[in-house]
């Protein structure tokens, strides 16, 4: 079994090395509107510090964004109302539509060399947890399962994560949150601080992508429904801690929305970006032909298997994941829009949670060994 762990560990490291080599040759001017918009947010943070939360176009007095648009040959670079990823707000302000988290992370690295370090850092987190899963495996089948999933998770950091800069940090947060969720549920006495930390991480993920707010849905259902049924103080405290963690984690986005849109609860997205729910067979068919479909099948299959065969904390992990999958897949599948990464976060959060829940199950005690350590009956006590 040690040999199998070594082999799969080396496979994960080889994929990581290949990814880093590929990432090192990426260009930050690949002609994608989202890219330059995230880089503009990073530039604002580097110029103004916390003041970078204000993304009003008047702050482009150094012509940074105009220069980026010229690099990609954007024809209407002079017209601020036509700037990509920007929307007019009440009062005449024109602001970035995205939450500030991705730009903040990019701002941690030197201008011109921001994207590659962000992706490498996120990939190292994912690979580290993949290796941890392989190390925790106790049986050959679990080593194979952890190894294959770990290799897949590391590979996904380059495809489809490259499609949007917001996906790389989201994938890292999902990996850590999935691991901590399994740890939280595996304990007989569940830590309030640990569930608050999970909520904090999921709240932080909202700063990368607003739809990441849905990643917390299964947790609220798991904690909220039992409380309504039992009125347990312990369950209430757990739910309160989780909710407080989510709120604190997403605070930067709420502050940014208050600054840019006039209210913490107002979105900076335009009306064209807000799509009403509707079931579209053409969009659903795109999911069927995409890598996301494989991840969805894996997540649903693993959930159903643990719901049926799992016990204790494994079954509870499956309950959290099932609620999350229903809400998230229900939302994305009912909106007539498709991208190659929309359901990747919920699929990966689910798979990380289920994988570690399985790996953290208590070791089985063989019956023969157990019998050898049982106290002898009174009739067998030596005279």
From TrEMBL:
Chain ranges passing through the membrane: 116-136, 143-161, 167-185, 192-210, 216-233, 240-259, 291-310, 317-335
Protein name listed in UniProt: Uncharacterized protein
UniProt keyword list: Membrane, Transmembrane, Transmembrane helix
């Amino acid at each position: 079994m040690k040999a199998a762990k070594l082999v799969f560990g080396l496979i994960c490291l080889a994929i990581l090395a290949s990814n880093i080599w590929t990432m090192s040759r990426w260009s930050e001017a690949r002609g994608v509107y989202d890219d330059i918009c995230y880089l503009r947010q990073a530039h604002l943070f580097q110029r103004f510090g916390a003041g970078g939360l204000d993304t009003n176009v008047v702050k482009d007095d150094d012509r940074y964004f105009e220069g980026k648009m010229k690099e990609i040959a954007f024809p209407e670079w002079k017209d601020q109302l036509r700037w990509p990823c920007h929307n007019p707000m009440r009062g005449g302000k024109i602001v970035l539509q995205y939450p500030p988290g991705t730009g903040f992370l990019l701002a941690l690295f030197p201008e011109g060399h921001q994207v590659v370090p962000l992706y490498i850092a996120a990939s190292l987190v994912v690979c580290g947890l993949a290796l941890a899963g392989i190390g925790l495996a106790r049986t050959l089948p679990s080593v194979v399962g952890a190894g294959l999933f770990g290799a897949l998770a590391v590979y996904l950091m380059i495809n489809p994560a490259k499609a949007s800069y917001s996906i790389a940090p989201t994938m890292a947060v999902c990996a850590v949150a999935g691991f901590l969720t399994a740890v939280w549920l595996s304990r007989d006495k569940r830590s309030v601080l640990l569930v608050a930390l999970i909520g904090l991480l999921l709240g932080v993920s909202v700063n990368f992508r607003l739809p990441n707010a849905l990643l917390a849905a299964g947790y609220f259902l798991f904690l909220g429904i039992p409380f309504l049924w039992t009125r347990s103080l312990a369950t209430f405290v757990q739910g309160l801690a989780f909710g407080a963690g989510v709120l604190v984690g997403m605070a930067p986005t709420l502050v940014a929305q208050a600054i840019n849109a006039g209210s913490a609860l107002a979105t900076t997205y335009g009306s064209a970006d807000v799509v009403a729910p509707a079931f579209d067979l053409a969009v659903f068919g795109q999911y069927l032909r995409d890598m996301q479909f494989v991840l969805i099948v894996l997540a649903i299959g693993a959930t159903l298997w643990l719901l049926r065969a799992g016990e204790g904390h494994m079954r509870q992990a499956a309950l959290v994941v099932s609620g999350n999958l229903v809400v998230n897949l229900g939302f994305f599948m009912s909106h007539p829009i498709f991208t190659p990464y929309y359901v990747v976060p919920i699929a990966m959060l689910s798979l990380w949670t289920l994988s570690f829940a399985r790996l953290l199950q208590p070791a089985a005690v063989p019956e023969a060994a157990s019998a050898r350590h049982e106290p002898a009956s009174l009739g067998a006590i030596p005279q």
